Amino acid sequence: MSAVLKRFIEAEARLKQAQLDYEKMQSDPKFQRAMEVKEKLHALQEEYQMSADEMVALIKPEAVDESAPKASSTRQKRRMKKYVNPHTNEVIETRGGNHKGLKEWKKEYGEEEVESWGGFIE
Prior knowledge:
The structure is a single chain. By secondary structure, the protein is mainly alpha-helical. The chain has two domains: 3-63, no CATH class; 81-120, no CATH class. The protein has five helices and three strands, in the order H-H-H-E-E-H-H-E.
């Protein structure tokens, strides 16, 4: 049997199984009840022109607490570092190593030497 025909037969079997599962779900009373509730909720949403969030807030206000402050980033800011070039007395203050001037210094003088010029600002 060719590989294509074999794949087709397997896909057909999976499709038949999926169809049986689908029909079984539709006949399940729990599923029917859930679908009925969903349809009624959508009808109420349209009738009262409310969003899903507004409906949830009516039923369970603590679930949608608008007065609570938004959670800020848990990541702390990087510490400020100050570099002073002893050759030119130029100063660069940065929180990261992606500063254009700092990159130029590292290219010209070497990374190790430039890092020796830096210190953290408290």
